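Hi Y.,

Following your request, here is the sequence exactly as I used it, all 107 residues.
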Amino acid sequence: MPVAPAASPFAATQPVRRPGTAADLARATKNPTLEQTSAPCSVCDGPIDPARFRQVWISLRVATDVLPLLVNACSTACVEALPEPADGYVANPHQGGPAVQQPEPRW
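Below is the corresponding structure, written out as tokens. Let me know if you'd prefer a different format.
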């Protein structure tokens, strides 16, 4: 009997519609931390330009656990610089939602 694919545990990130200010970006993404113009990139710690903002999920091993981390990145280059996700989890940074293909279970 075929097994249905697992539903994605990651909430879909919201598309950004090129807002004009950091406050507009915060409202568009429902991310109040971006109302501060000094909100840093999760990768390089640089400022986030609303025109180049990227938000992705990644699963990383922390000690003995694997945690889903939401990354606020200032550019595509910072998303590409993220470390390799943990083995057995989604193999690349993604924007979440039902279209994300989950790996096959190991059991």
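The two ends are 16 Å apart (CA to CA).

Thanks again,
Q.
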